[in-house]
Structure formats: structure tokens, C-alpha cells
Amino acid sequence: MLNAIAVPMAPEAARAVRDRPDALIAAPLPQDAEVRGDWVRAPGARGGAVIYVHGGGFARTMPEAERTMAYRLSKATGRPALRVDYRLAPEHPYPAALEDVLAAWRAVLDEGVPAAEVVFAGESAGATLVLSALLEIQRTGGPRPGAAIAISPLTDFALKGASIADNDGKDVMSRAALGSIVAQYLADAPADHAPQSPLYGDPHGLPPLLIAVGTDEVLLDDARRFAEAADAAGVSVRLEEYEGMPHAFQLSEPGEVLLDRIGRWLADPVRVFTVSGPDAGPYALTGGSDGALWYTLVHQGAIGRRDADGRITVHSAGTKPMMIAQGPDDALWFSEYGTHCIGRIAVDGTLSSFAPPTADGGPYGIAAGPDGALWFTLSAAGRIGRITMDGHITEYPAPEGFPSAMAAGPDGAMWFTLNQGNAIGRITMDGRTTAHPLPTEAAAPVGLAQGPDGALWFTEIGAGQIGRITVDGTVTEYPLPDRQARPHAITSGPDGALWFTEWGRGGVGRITTDGRITAYDLPRADCEPHGIAAHDGALWCALETGALARIDVPR
């Protein structure tokens, strides 16, 4: 689901834009601005870079005003900003300006700035050029920038957006002016082709995007349609619609709101990627041997795969696939709670299914064991199962109490939560079980993971706590700041801490091995985060409302 945000603006803000459309750029550069050619640095700006592409209908430039905007972007992002002095139409029609933006990108990389620390930012025509450049960078391969900001882009030179007519007369930009811009910029290039018209390109693999537009703009639908297309292609997109704002609102005083939000968006460690409809229910996830992220779609009865470019493949599976784990055979194994089977999917999509001896057992947790097999819980039957790579299943009785999640321990045994038994269970490779009761009543443990400290860590969804159990059965509990957060799944992170989802709060938590807790908000409080896994140097969690969230690990 597209992350679209309506940004309320006071009526007097819209009047201020129309009365003083150039308020932010009419004033001279502040005395603390450091200017070297087309590089502008605000105080406090450090590493990385902003490649700033100005507007002006592809035909006009105001260097001093643009340096002022570059300064404000540098201040908002904490990076030095490079103003791109691209060639102008009609003397230099498409693709001259795009070639200049790409040349600036290569020059910044040649200066040693890491690609991931570069942010593209553009307004109006410059926003169009930013999106065109991103499509070309992706098409030709090589590194990609870390993020991009497009303010009021023209994405469809065929001018098919409904708002071009609907907002004509309300906006400071007109339909007639757009027609003139198209004619001057495109010359003989087709209007319905990419990269000149970004809407007709393939957005797969683009970096995270912040697209901003005013609701009174003729280009409102151009922004919306590109954001929707990028979201459907698995790109992390935030669309911000500024109520009552006309074109070029970012150049007036209300634009300070946008600049502040740009800075906070860039600093946010969380990025969200749509992978299914809101009713499909991404539930658990894990990295595969193929470098992709695999996840269960519990309500759709399917297994999903997301590759590094955000391309999604969906394979039909048994009813209510729940937990998923990588097996020692490089395939993905998962529990089919609704069809009471254990499923296997190879990285080429080949599916197979195995029924345990106990009928209607309700398979739930699954994890690879130290013996080259997969171990799983039969939650409804109170049993633990073991399945070999050729599909042979052995079952063992478990302590009473709804065995749930499962994890390998550092002691050569498998450990599991007893959700209704209020205990943590352990089973040896020969099937002997032990249960360790929890100190807190009705703690209802669910998620379980081996920590980097030689202990097992688990979530207490009923008590709002994180627990730790050593292999000798010693339990320590850590209350969460929000006891109603309902922690669900937990995993070891690449930073030596444990990370967990907070289903009740719509967030993600981090706990160090000495019990220090940090909370991270997800974009929506009702996003229903469930599974969590480390993948490609970050933490990923499944949001049952149709998305996966990526959380950058603090270094």
C-alpha cells in the first residue's frame, strides 16, 4: 500500500505562496554559507552529497536563487549540495539536460563520495530530470544513489493527468504553459517514452523516493501516478501532498515545512516496501541462499520472494503458511498451519509438501537443527516434529502448553516457546524434553531466537516483556517501556543486539544483551508487524497489511 501522507497547511500559507512565490530564494545567501563554484555547504554539513537539479521549465536558470535553495537543502540534509548547471531548452532540447545531470552524478562519484551517501533532489523540471536520471542509472547498471527527492515532477509529457484540467486556474502553473514546456524540451522526442517521461519507465530497483506535491497543482496526478507505479514495483515511496499548495510552493516560506520533513525522512532508519495487497498478510520472512528475501503470505496461501531490485514472485502454497526457515539443502521450509503440513520450496519455485503422522497438528514454528534436519512444533497437538531433507518425519511428545516458535540453541538442542504453558521448552536430538516455567504469570511467550551471548531470547506477548534464558534454565525478564506493545517475533541482529516486532504498538524494538531497549516507530501504528529477520546488513520485518519494512542497523 502506497505510503501517502496529507500534510495540512494553513490557508494563509497558500496565500503567502501566491503573494511571495520566491520568498525563500529572493534573499541573499546567508553569511555562513560556504560556496565553491556550484558546491554549497551549510554549517554542520559533513559527508555525502546532494545533487540538486533546479526547476525553470527546462529553459530558465537563476544561479544565485538556486544556490540559496542548494544551501537550504544542505542545511536540511546535513550534506554539501551541488547545483547542476544543465544546458537549457530550446537551444539544447532533450537529452542535453539529462546528460548533464548524469555527468554531475559521475563527477560526484569520481570525487570519492560513496553512491549510497548521495541524494538526488529536484524541483519541477529538475524533479523530472531526477527521475529520468534514476531510470537511466538503473537501466545502465552500476551503483545507485541512496535516496531521491522529487518536488512537483512532470512525469508524463503526454499530459494525460486528470489534475492538469481539474486544477487549471487554481494553480500558478497552467495547462497552456505545460504545453509550451513540452514543445521546447522534447523537440522531436516522443512524449510517451522513458526516460524523458519517467511514468513510462521501469521503476524496479530505484532508491527510496520522497515525492512532494501541492494539492492545487496541475501536476498533482503526475506525482501520484509515478508514486503509485514505483510503489507497485517494490520501491520504498513516500508521497506527501501539501494541502492547498500551488506549484513552486517550496520556494516560499511554507516550503520550510517541506525542507524540515525532507531532513527527517532522510534520517529515518525505516523504509517500507509494498509486496502484496493489504489482505494477503505477510507474516514471517527469512533470507534465502539465492540472496532474495522469502516470506509467507498467510491469508493468500502463498510464498513470496523479493529480489534485490524489488521484483516480486509469488508461489501458491498450502493454507495459512506461517513460519519459514532456510534449510540445510538451501531450500526454504515452512509450516502450513491450515493444511497441517510442512512445505518446501526450492529457490527455483518447485514446491513439495509433507504431512506429519499426527493429523490436524497445526504446524507453526520451524527451524534448522544441528543434525541436518528441520524441527517444527505441532501447536494444536502438543508435539515436536523432525523432518529430514528427504521428507521423513519423526514426532515427539512436548510438554503441555501450545508449543509455538522454535530455535536451535548453543547447546546442541532445540528450544521452543510454550505459549499457553507459560514456559520455555527444550528438546534434545533423541527427543527428551524439559520445560522451564517463566516467573511472570500469563506471559504468553511467542518468538524465540538464539542470542550472541550464548543464551536464548524470547518475547512475552502477554506481559509486554523480553525474556532471556540460559542453557541451564535461568530466566531474566526485561519489561518494555510500553507494556501493551505485544512483542511478537525476535531475531539476532548484525549489530550484536536482539531485535523484535511490537505488534500492538506498530513498531520495532532493539534490546542489547545487557537489557537496554530502544524503540523504533513504523510509518503506521496499525501495520501489524509480525516476523523479523536479519538480511543484507539490515533488519527486515513483515507487516501483515501488505508490506516489508527495512530498518537500518545503527553502527
Describe this entry's structure for a reader:
Its EC number is 4.2.99.-. Inactivates the type B streptogramin antibiotics by linearizing the lactone ring at the ester linkage, generating a free phenylglycine carboxylate and converting the threonyl moiety into 2-amino-butenoic acid. It comes from Streptomyces antioxidans. Residues 50-250 form the Alpha/beta hydrolase fold-3 domain. With 555 residues, this protein is α+β, with helices and mostly antiparallel strands. It has 2 domains: 3-268, Rossmann fold, CATH 3.40.50.1820; 282-552, 7 Propeller (Methylamine Dehydrogenase, Chain H). It contains 9 helices and 37 strands. The strands form 8 sheets. The chain has a 9-stranded mixed sheet, with helices on both faces. It has a 4-stranded antiparallel sheet with strand order 10-37-36-35, with no helix packed on it. A 4-stranded antiparallel sheet has the order 11-12-13-14, with no helix packed on it. Helix 3 (63-77) packs across helix 9 and helix 4 (96-110) packs across helix 5 (125-140). It is elongated. The mean pLDDT is 94.
What's the short version?
The protein is of the alpha+beta class and 555 residues long.
Secondary structure tally: strands: 37
CATH hierarchy: architecture of the largest domain:
7 Propeller
Based on secondary structure, the structural category is alpha+beta
- Which stretches are poorly predicted, pLDDT < 50 over at least 5 residues? none
CATH topology of the largest domain: Methylamine Dehydrogenase, Chain H
Kindly report the spatial arrangement of strands forming the biggest sheet. Answer: 1-9-8-7-6-4-5-3-2
Q: What is the number of helical segments per DSSP (H or I, 4+ residues)?
A: 9
Indicate the percent of residues in helices. 10-25%
* Molecular shape: elongated
Approximately how much beta-strand content do the residues carry?
25-35%
- Indicate the CATH class of the largest domain: Mainly Beta
Q: How many separate structural domains? A: 2
For the largest beta-sheet, the strand count, sense and barrel status come to: 9 strands, mixed
Q: Write out the CATH superfamily name of the largest domain.
A: YVTN repeat-like/Quinoprotein amine dehydrogenase
Estimate the mean pLDDT confidence.
Answer: 94
Rg calculated over all Cα atoms = 27 Å
Distance between the termini: 30 Å
